[in-house]
Every structure is written in C-alpha cells, then in structure tokens.
Amino acid sequence: MPEVRWAALATAAFLPALALDLTGAPAWLWAPLYAICYAAGGWEPGLAGLRALRERTLDVDLLMVVAALGAAAIGQFLDGALLIVIFAVSGALEAFATRRTADSVRGLLDLAPDTATRLTPGGAEERVDVSALRVGDTVFVRPGERLPADGTVREGTSDVQQAGITGEPLPVDKGPGDEVFAGTLNGTGALRVTVDRDASESVIARIVSMVEEASERKAPGQLFIERIEQRYAIGMVAATLALFAIPLALGAELTETLLRAMTFMIVASPCAVVLATMPPLLSAIATCGRNGVLVKSAAAMERLGGITRVALDKTGTLTEASARVRGIRVLPGSGLTEHEALAWAAAAERPSEHPLARAVVAAAEERGLRLEPAADFGSAPGRGVRAVVAGRTVQVGSPLALLDGATPPLKRPGEPAPPTGGGDPGRTDVANESSRRATADDAAHTATTDDPARTATTDDDARTAVDQDGPVRAAVAEVEDGGATAVAVLVDGRPAAVLAIAAPLRAGAAEAVAALGQLTGTPPVLLTGDNKRAAARLGEEVGITDIRAGLLPQDKVATVRGWEDTGERVLMVGDGVNDAPALAAAHTGVAMGRAGSALTLETADAVVVRDELAAVPSLVALSRRARRLVAQNLVIACACIGALVVWDLFGHLPLPLGVAGHEGSTVLVGLNGLRLLHTSAWPGAGRTGRRAAGSETMSGGSSHP
Questions:
Q1: Which are the contacts of 324, defined by CB distance < 8 A and separation ≥ 6?
Q2: Distance in angstroms (rounded) separating the CA atoms of residues 266 and 255
Q3: Residue 229: how many CB atoms within 10 A of its CB?
Q4: How much is the mean pLDDT over the chain?
Q5: How, if at all, do strands 606-608 and 293-295 pair?
Q6: Which sign, positive or negative, has the C-alpha torsion 631, 633, 636, 641?
C-alpha cells in the first residue's frame, strides 16, 4: 500500500535526522534527511488537501502540512518533521486496516463454491457456474462438498456443518424439506437440493452486504469530529493571516510580523492535543497486547470505554468451540462401569470423522483407556455408527434411531470387559454400508437445531418414548434437558449407556458476565442462533436472563441496531461468520480469536487472542481508565496552548520560549499517558473464579474417573 510505504520512508528519514540534530551535527548532515521526511510524509496529505480546497473544504491534514512548512520557514525543522511523521503514520494505519477488512469481506464469498452440479430434467449431471443457477434448479451435493446455493433439501439425508451461518456448534441433520445455506459444508450423505435464492441473495452474500452497510453506518458518528476539524482549521488559518496582515497594514516591520505569525501557528498547532490523546490509548493497546488482546486502533480503544450494553454470542464465545463429553449415564442392568461404556463407544467411533465421534474418542484418550480396533465399521446419516469390537457389535448414535427395536438392557453373567488389547473380532452386516462415516448427532435432540417446530416435535416424541422404555428414555430426556446432545451406546443390541456431549462453558464465563454487568450497569444479553432450551440452560449457568435465541445474522443486526437507535452504545462479542454483521453494526465489536472466522476477526475492533472471556471486562475497564487520562491530557494541552496563544497575541512571546512551552506540554501529556504501560494497569476485573473446562458432572454419573 502506498500510504504505508511513504509513512515508512518519512519515519526512516526522521529518526536519524532527529539524532543528528539533537547531537549538534552540521546542518548539511540532517537537513537533507528532514527534506526527505517532509516530502515523503507530506506530499500525499498536501495534495489531498489542495483537492479538498477545490471543493471549498479545508482539511486539517493540509493545515498540518502548512504548519510544518511554516515551522521550517523559521528554522524549526524538528517541529515540522514531527508533525509530518505523526500524520503520515496514522494515515498509513487507517489505510492498512481498511484494506485488510475489505479483503476479508471479499474472501468470505469464497466460502461458496464457484461451480455446482446441476441436474437436468432427465436426471443427467452438468457442471455449471454458481452464477448460472436459477431459482427452481436442482443441484446435487456430494459428501464433503460445500453447498452452492440457499435452498431446500429435496432428496437425501446428511449432516451439515453450518456453524458459520447459524452459530450452532455441531453439525445439523438435514433431510427432505429442510433449509440449507450456501457455503455450509455437507457431511456424510448426498443431497439433492432445490435452489430457493439467486447467488446474490444468499445468506452468505447478505452477510457481506450487511458488514459493508454497517461499517458505513458508523460514518455519521465521525461527522462531528470533521465539523470540529473544519472550524479549528479555518479559525487557525484566519487568525494566522490576521496576525500577519493587520500589523503589517498598520506599518509593522515585515520580519517581526512574520515571526509573530509563525510563532502563533506553531504554538496553536494541535500537536499537544494529538499527543494528549494518543499516548494513553496507545499505552492501553500495548498493555492489552501483553495480556492477549489485540485492539486494532486508538479509536477502537476509546470507543470501548463508552459502551452502555453488552451482547454476547453463545457458541465459541460463552462456550468453547469444540464439543466434549460432559457426562456418562450408565443404564441399569448393563453391567458396565463408566469407563467400560466409554471404551466400547470410543472404539466404535474411532474410524469416524464426525465432531461428536472425535469428542467421544478424545474423552477416552484423556482417561487413558486402551481401545481395540473396530472391524466392519459402517455409518448411516441421522443414525450413527456400527462396528464390531472384540467380537461384540457396538452401535453409537442417535437415541431415537438406535433405541427403536433395541433389546432392553440385561446383565449377562460372565460378560467380558471392554477391549483392552488383542481379540479376534468377528464380522456382521452393517446397515447403510455405502455411507462413509456416521453422523452421531441426535436427529431429535434440540441442542443442535434452531427450528422451533422441530424442537417441539422432537420434545413430544422423546416424552412419549420415555413412557415406553423407562430408564433408557428417561436418561436421554435428562441429558437433553441439561442442554447437551444425547448419544446412545448399544452393545449387542442392548442399551448400555447414554453419553452427554456439549460444548463446555468457557472458564470464567459467569464471572465475566457479572463484571460486564457491573461496568455497564445493564445486564448482558445473549444473542444466539441456537435453540431456546440450550440457550436458556446456558443463560442459567452464566447468569444471563435476557436471552434472544434462534437468530439468523440479520436478526442479530436488527437487534443491535434497535438498541443503537435508542441511544445505546452496544459492545458485541462473537466469533463466527454469522456474528460479523452484528459486530460491524455495533458501537464496538470484540471477537474471540482462536476459533474466530477471518471476517469476524477483521470486522471486530478488538480480538481476544487467547480466548479468555475474562479479558473482555478487563479490556473495557482499561479503556475507561485510558479515557480518563485522555481527558486529563486534553485539559493540560488546551491550557498550555491557550496560555501560549494569549501570550503571543497580547504580549511578546519569544520564539524559543514558545517552542519550549509547546514541546514541554507535549512531553508532559505524553509521559502522563505512558502510565498505562505499567503491568499494574491491566485491571483484574473478571479474572477471578475461573473454572476448569469440562469439570461439570451429571447427577447420574460423572464424566471423570
């Protein structure tokens, strides 16, 4: 980017020139370096300012260039060069941030594939550009492919990973009649999808549009600053010209009059005001960086301290991004311990790549369980996996799908322990052997769907089943009532256990929520695409009572804008692509960095790199302290500038004294702002009481040995 290159050149020339000038080196050594600094850092804002003059607008950047040239005209080369470098670097940072955000927005569109497999009326396949798809077309989506368009499933069943759109932490089962979105990842099954929207109207395209639109909505908030800049620039130029022209017209000596006018321009220049604002904010940014938080600009740091309401996403923000086994319910009569039930399940799940399967295997590995190889592995979308382990047939997956027709649990005398090595597994037929891997996700449980109608239906089905199968269905219902995904484990056709799988709460989430409420005086709000029951359960755990569930990206934006329109200054905290529009629409956005999408990280004003939710209230508290220091510095800077200007106007201010006063106030406010660099400046709010992730237990059985 040219802005970065010119700013780098200006800085590179200024630093050695400054050293040579202060050490008393001859002018022929430092003067050319100052000239390079002036030219490299000043030509672009100067040219832009001249163009603005054609439109009858006086740009403050042009004013700074004029002030720098005026300082140089009376021999104050260092003052002028410092002005040039400050504005060149700030302009480069702004251009860099804008470029990165634009690139990220364009990159989001790459989630959707460029081509699609369209089915002709005769059933033949043809490869076409996504832009050629029309509403009503039927596309064929193979396992592992991304969906090319928004539409409705016509044939087939599969699990679809759509966390980036809806925020749901786990893949969602899709079948005929279900809605799917462009850019989401198809899982284990093949789908025939009827296109419902053109590519330009897809949810992913609308997310990009909303990010750009919301970013532009912030511009009116900058109009006040621009009006102040205009008035200050016009007033300063008018005063300088008057201070030069009026005495000259009254017969004053030219050199003395010019010297007074240039002195006025130097002491009235806003260097001290600029530095009064920047050191506290930049020091706060540096302190945040040492504590795992990246704040992208001084303006963002300043805005963070002004928030009045906090909105939090659920998945990946209040909870961790990956699922874990939260509990194990061993069924009466199975004759197994928790470790034995988990070992059977993990051995069968190990060949699968499904997120729930990885959670089961990870839980077994954490406990140091030895797993036998699985033979005759097979999977079926919406049902789960089936494999032969140590001569026993093990099924793991959807409770409603697997428990139908299952033999009630019965303890068998002499039943062997779970596999620990060796064994000569036999073979058995595997249902839906053509599928490559399972979706162990429960098609009925409500922890992974945001469709209220499906939630109500599956709830009723589960309650009816409880009456029929007693303890088995009761265990499933208890797991789901706890906001987790229920996964059934069958050994030789008999229900053996029910696993509870969920994304665990982040360490310190409840404390962070409480701290944010204390800082803003308003309880935080939960905005999530997940279902109401799972959201309500999480809200109880972290202390959030205002819960907005089942929200698509546009719903989150509408909610945030509704608050903003009433005068609230909203802090949005999220991590997924679906959170990006709300982050852009909010007064300030903070992204969780480890699992955050590229667009979210670029759209947010700050990124919590270490994924510590407790850092968010600390960040807000530090921003408020920085704002207080900025206010102090502005008072000091304005008082010094005002005193020097009055002295110059109504007395005789020697140029060296004027420069000393001007630079002295600059140093004073700079040192005051640097106080935030100290280690103790990072607030302790929200950092206490952290809980270890995954330590929760269930009343029916602990997930730990």
A1: 359, 362, 363, 501, 502, 503, 504, 693, 694
A2: 16
A3: 17
A4: 75
A5: antiparallel
A6: negative
Global pTM reads: 0.56
User: Given strand 546-548, what is the order of strands in its sheet?
Assistant: 293-295, 606-608, 588-592, 570-574, 309-312, 525-527, 546-548
Lowest mean pLDDT among 7-21, 234-248, 458-472, 565-579: 458-472
Across the beta sheet with 185-186, what order do the strands follow?
172-174, 158-161, 185-186
CA distance 173 to 404: 18
In terms of Cβ atoms closer than 10 Å to its own Cβ (0-12, 13-18, 19+), residue 80 is buried
Q: Residue 456, exposed/middle/buried by CB under 10 A (0-12, 13-18, 19+)?
A: exposed
| Spatial contact of 292 and 615, defined as CB atoms under 8 Å apart | yes
Contact 177, 153 (CB under 8 A): yes
3-state DSSP percent of the chain in helix, strand and coil, to 5: 55, 15, 30
What pLDDT score was predicted for residue 514? 94
From the list 505, 510, 518, 545, the residue with the least C-alpha distance to 688 is 510
Number of other CB atoms surrounding residue 33 within 10 Å:
21
Which residue in 607, 539, 531, 619 sits closest to 574, CA to CA?
607
Strand order in the sheet with 138-141: 125-129, 115-119, 138-141, 191-195, 151-155, 179-180
Computed from CA positions of residues 469, 472, 477, 480, in that sequence, does the dihedral angle turn out positive or negative? Answer: negative
Token duo for residue 164: 């980036």
Say what the pLDDT of residue 467 is. 40
Half-sphere exposure of 344 (CA within 13 A, CB side): 34
pLDDT at 141 over 80: yes
Burial class of 311 by CB neighbour count within 10 A (0 to 12, 13 to 18, 19+): buried
CB 574 within 8 A of CB 313: yes
CB neighbour class for 147 (10 Å; exposed up to 12, middle 13-18, buried from 19): buried
Q: How far apart are CA 366 and CA 360, in angstroms?
A: 10
Integer Rg of the chain from CA: 33
Torsions phi, psi for 513 (to 5 deg): -60, -45
Instruction: Using alpha carbons, select from 635, 629, 641 the residue that is nearest to residue 270.
Output: 641
Residue 56 DSSP SS3: coil
For 613-628, letters b (16+ CB in 10 Å) and e give bbbbbbbbbbbbbbbe
Dist. CA 208–CA 7, nearest whole Å: 31
Which residue in this structure is represented by tokens 């002709």? 120
| Rounded Cα distance, 417 and 423, in Å | 12
Task: Point out the residues that are catalytic.
Answer: 313
For the chain, the residue count is 705
Q: Among all chains, which residue has been given the structure tokens 């909203």?
A: 570
Using DSSP, state whether 670 is helix, strand or coil.
helix
pLDDT tens track for 561-600: 999 999 999 999 987 667 788 888 899 989 886 555 566 6
Q: Which residues pair with 36 in a beta bridge?
A: none
First to last CA, the chain: 57
> For the range 201-204, what are the long-range contacts, defined as Cβ-Cβ under 8 Å and sequence gap of 24 or more?
201/150, 202/112, 202/149, 202/150, 203/150, 203/165, 203/552, 203/553, 204/108, 204/109, 204/111, 204/112, 204/165, 204/577
Q: What single letter denotes the amino acid at residue 134?
A: R
**Sheet strands side by side (includes 324-330):** 324-330, 494-502, 485-491, 392-397, 384-389, 375-380
